[in-house]
Amino acid sequence: MSVSYNLALLNFFIADVQDGLGPYLGVFLKQKGFSEFSIGAINSITKLSALILAIPFGILVDRTRYKKILIALCATLISTATLLNYFYHSFYFTLLSQLVIALCGTLLAPALASITLGIMGHSGYGVQVAKNEAFKHAGTSFCAALSFVCAMHYGIVSVFIITALMGTLTLISLYCLRNAKINHLVARGGNQECKIPLKDMFKNKHILLLAITLFFFHLSNAHMLPLLSHRAYELGVDTSGWYASLTILVAQSTMILIAANLTRFSIDENLAFKLMSLALSGLIIRGLIAANTNGIVGMIIVQIIDGICAGTIGVIVPILVAKILKGSGHINAGLAFVIMSGGIGGAFSGLLGGYIANSFGYFHAYITLGAMALCGLVIWILGAIRESTRQN
After folding, report:
1. Can you tell me the mean pLDDT for 144-154?
2. Would you put residue 31 in left (φ > 0), alpha (ψ -120 to 50) or beta?
């Protein structure tokens, strides 16, 4: 099997591991008597705490030659923390286990991007990123479908077991890459002698615009899916986790198609602007539809839009960062910075969405989250116009 497909398979198996339980956590904690605000607080606290280390993690990935070991360690810790959380589900133990998962997930993103760039090189990076994303979403879809069936028959405990199983398969797929050589200079986007200071990366206007836009994207998007599962639970639609599985399956199936189709395009600045604008506009529509429907059909439409938006972002962001910071030697630190910004937005999304839903209801929560996407769209367009004006 080629190295390209081994990389893709690694992303297939690690997809279900990287985020731990994902939206299933909310269903599980609801069963244990956690309030909407407590769930949102756990998500926000753990993600914000982990993201403090996002840039140091990116710098670590840029400098270390033990990237595969880092990935193996993270996969093991996430699987272990997930299993323990099933048996110990107090507020503070849940907080601790989710913190471990968030820390490892933050480290995995630049680590996976780095080994992809180091193995495939800049010329093959764009196509491989799209392939990785397609396989990652396929992995999430497979696990969502498996969890859907198992949750219907055996309850939510099956989701914990599936996550641990995927962690084991992740380690096996990583072992299959043992002979794949990583060019560590290319993996960090460096020249023979990197003379660009790290601080200059944070002054790059393109990176700053991308980071701010991603903050609002994830502020809008991150808590919409958990709110779907929580609302279904309160309405009595889902008490075992099968509805959460279905929401993921619809979104991830759409993301597979989006990522697969983006392998056919060379993503330059003009296409990236259009794709980002499309993704942000889609989130506004997603929030409006979710606010006004409780049915299965409405959920399917909402999750198809999620698949289009998130699938697009997942492909274009690492490619854009690699293009912007090529030759700097700080690609993974830059990617970690951008991901950190989006992660901060995602963490506040849980706090904002959970508070609004708890205090005013799900309708107002979705409207508020959709409005955050509108803010991101305005900033993205104004930033692009300003850059265009400056160049002319």
Report:
1. 80
2. alpha
